[in-house]
């Protein structure tokens, strides 16, 4: 499309034939000139395979009469009209000659929306797609199994989860899964189901079930068949396992209601005072904007006649004391004037010769902004950038208000964000773990998770050996509410508030009715993989739910997280707790939509470390009431959810090497009566919110156990070369390792180093890379685990190729 605004083209194509329409815009003078017959302007619209350069063009006419004249000329109008400066824009299907003749008759024929080039590109794309389908249909596809697992959830009900990738990526490929009902049973005795095709950013990822399937018996094998002819049978393994229960003296359950950020902060402050030997408060350096807003009032109900005023001072700092009145004088031909007494602003409206109001919204706005005394108190604006040509109505003195409803116990001043630091030795010598919650205001369960974890650590330290090992050997930072301002607003004003309360919107988007849309999505405000770098999943629209802010790290809340991980470089692990949906994810978290260009994936060893740790962490979550986080909701963010440009986990991993996860608490609940999974929402009834807090606090404790094991790990990894396939002309091999680790190798007999080739994954969720050589090769390698332990010596092995020994 050639835009009349910027001249850029897109691939939009519109049908070459459109029906004429009549637009009722009212009577206007008819354009001068005789009305020809259709044949007078269509001599080159003849049947032709080339379509003679026909295009869909913009035409701007002054009024409805111009539209009527186009219809009378037999012009092929599309069913479209839009008021624009200078009249009405309509769209017409025209040949080059028709366009020239219309211009000669005085019509304003503008640029093309689509032309034959767009048509040709669409046809070429269609032919290419159809050819790909035909090619895929001609040969059986190859199926690569990614995961096949069973698990129990809640009341020990069993579920099956399967993921498989087909080499045929088109949408017509259908995969079907069939499974048995236990050892020795028929292969199809357990059931069968069609799998869903999972795509992201327009690219095929793999097939899976939309939801785990309930099964009555534990399957041992599942067979996947494709409509293209491919098939594969794989064993079904158990996902998650039982975790040793805490000791009998272990105490938990320290939250009994949803808490606002003031309560949460007071709670951790009290904990630090109660346990000074093992805890302290860390004041983060960047105070937030605060739970405060400018005061406002709006006058009028029709856009053209509406204006709003906004106080210069926050409502809590005097803005709520300002008042504005729009007064109609009794006299005729009175001028528009503004007077100010203290904080009371009076606008005396202009009148015409009959003493009727003559002031428009724009005139009142300009008068208020031009008056020195009034503009010291407030600014005025028309409604969302309207021209403001409508006449205003008189209005009595109206107090401006910030519309904030929290009790006075919630401070309106900038908020001092606090983190609770827990550890027997808090000098930076221990591995640090950063647990942070409530980046998004409406996620009320998440601060309870952080508070519950802090309480468990401090109150069990003297009585529980496992807790004592954590506190003695780690440096733990708990930040229960990253976004206090937005959370206060969510609690008391608008419960679905996601962002903070900083209003970056210009006047056109800053009227009182837009107040629930202001703020920055803090988990889109970081500096890695951001919108400003071209990554997807954020917006520059200041009223969007995923508004990234005016710049990277523009918000004090985001800068606080960065400061903490920079100030304490011993922090090696992090957990960002969100809700809801029951996800467990890790970096990378963003991609560019064009080509789905993902941030660099973590290396093979770290990816396996994430997966292995996940089993321990999610088994702890399951230990509370049986909730299982599904395999299909576990993995790197883009693989299981979406792209989140500028998120905090990417910030901490790519800039400082912090191994970080994202919890989305609140897994779907299975309804046995309907046999459906039901979502729980951001603010479930507290009975459900309490259970979520309990189980995911157990998950946070398990993350601390992972970090403690990391800190104590001195064991060297061990690896082996494993041949996985042979032909007469090649041999394929890979490496097996006894723990998550990276393998560095050479194929030329030279001694490997950490700059040598590194073993990778075969693909997204596809397991270990397979290496193929076409001649007998001496392979040398060694492995290094995530904790930095290196295999004792580099190893070597001769890989034989049958035809070349």
Layout of SSEs?
Blueprint: E1 55-61, H1 64-72, E2 76-84, E3 87-94, H2 96-104, E4 108-114, H3 116-138, E5 143-153, E6 157-166, E7 175-179, E8 191-194, E9 196-200, E10 203-208, E11 213-215, E12 221-226, E13 231-235, E14 237-238, H4 261-274, E15 279-283, E16 294-299, E17 307-314, E18 323-327, E19 337-341, E20 344-348, H5 361-370, H6 372-375, E21 378-382, E22 395-399, E23 418-422, E24 431-437, H7 445-460, H8 465-473, E25 474-479, H9 484-492, H10 556-567, E26 571-581, E27 583-586, E28 591-592, E29 597-598, H11 604-625, E30 634-636, H12 637-640, H13 648-656, E31 659-667, E32 669-671, E33 676-678, H14 686-712, E34 719-726, E35 731-737, E36 741-746, E37 757-758, E38 771-773, E39 777-785, E40 795-799
Parallel strand pairs: 5-14, 18-20, 24-25, 24-26, 26-31, 27-30
Antiparallel strand pairs: 1-3, 1-4, 2-3, 5-6, 6-10, 6-11, 7-8, 7-12, 9-10, 12-13, 15-23, 16-17, 17-21, 18-22, 19-20, 23-25, 27-31, 28-29, 32-33, 34-35, 35-38, 36-37, 36-39, 39-40
Helix pairs in contact: 4-7, 7-8, 7-14, 10-13, 11-14
Cofactor: Zn(2+)
GO cellular component, one term: extracellular space
InterPro entries: GH29D-like_dom, Peptidase_M14
- Largest sheet, described in full? 8 strands, mixed
What is the radius of gyration?
33 Å
Sum up the overall morphology in one term: globular
CATH superfamily of the largest domain: Zn peptidases
Low-pLDDT segments: 1-50
Structural class: alpha+beta
Which CATH-level-2 architecture of the largest domain? Answer: 3-Layer(aba) Sandwich
Kindly state the mean pLDDT as a whole number? 87
Number of domains: 5
Give the strand tally: 40
Q: Could you say what the CATH topology of the largest domain is called?
A: Aminopeptidase
Tell me the distance between the termini. 61 Å
CATH class of the largest domain: Alpha Beta
Strand order of the largest sheet: 15-23-25-24-26-31-27-30
The amount of helix comes to: 10-25%
For this structure, the quaternary state is single chain
% residues in beta strands: 25-35%
Helix tally equals 14
Cofactor: Zn(2+)
Family: Belongs to the peptidase M14 family.
Keywords: Hydrolase, Metalloprotease, Protease, Signal, Zinc
Protein name: Peptidase M14 domain-containing protein
